[in-house]
């Protein structure tokens, strides 16, 4: 059947009228919507308070806070600083005359129902940076999701923020987004404790283990292109200058045997040299991080860059498949072999910084292991942060393995003592921890404190 033009016109008019009616009904419903009502006994909720329960500021700044409260109608507000009420409005601001540590509490009361939040407040004095003395380096890496609350500044010498992600295929060639970290105040706080803060540049990182994504050469592809390389270096240096950072670490983590041209890798390491600044504190560190295993040779040019202050060597991710598995993923033999390998590349011993993972490897293999291989090992294993391992066994710090399923292998205090002793015996540069987000803040069980003490640091 063929519709005539007049019939089609009538249908379209009716259809248009129907749409208009539906739109009017929806609009009417929106107009008639009322604001939510709250019972008198409902708890007033406080939104956007930092999960770390920490505020850090410079003494030259003014503290300004204003959080969303719901329901806020009829509510009373109190800001309490060190047990003294200093404000009774929802918003709060204060200028401090000097630095110091404080406790800040925000109390909301509505119809006798109270809710509150408390935080540690650190006001940093604007004093000259003075690096702490140390015997050997303890280099702590902090992931993009980390905060100042994850960092034990008393037991590290250098803090590396990981990472500015370089991706040739991304619209944003260098991603320097560190949501929630409050990087400027983190740097000020670290500097006040005598700790240098550096930026790591890398490809995409698989967390928590710190590996590059398999077959992803986006970082290498970017720096292998002259125009992109220039933009990468300029972007990194601007970000470093804007945030008063003390160094740059290059982690060409997305490497596979034969995939990278080591000659071009060496050219990139050297291409950065002319752009290196003096640093905000009279010293700017230039370092590299390298994975272990069969890919080491691809990055060996780092050993020949004399300006390179040290190389962080990831002596972990050595998990295996049956019949060899389960096995430690951060074995002592790998730690010592990698140190010897990089020395053979020409890297001075005092520039070798060996890696300690704050992550363990958990095996839960099937009864029939004949079908387990590299392609499906992920189905029968998992990475676990060190602080999570401590929830399984309060004495886990005294061991290197938990007998859970087919074993959780990790570096506890015994492994740290053994590796630290090797560093001292061989006069290596120190130890690095990947990443401190996964360490514990309990100093009696902490990995960074165990490393710092074992290396003979004051």
UniProtKB/TrEMBL annotation:
Every GH18 domain range: 136-458
This enzyme's EC code(s): 3.2.1.14
Classification via InterPro entries: Chitinase_II/V-like_cat, GH, Glyco_hydro18_cat, Glycosyl_Hydrlase_18
Single GO MF descriptor: chitin binding
GO biological process, one term: carbohydrate metabolic process
Cellular component, GO annotation: extracellular region
Protein name: chitinase
Organism whose genome encodes this protein: Pseudochryseolinea flava
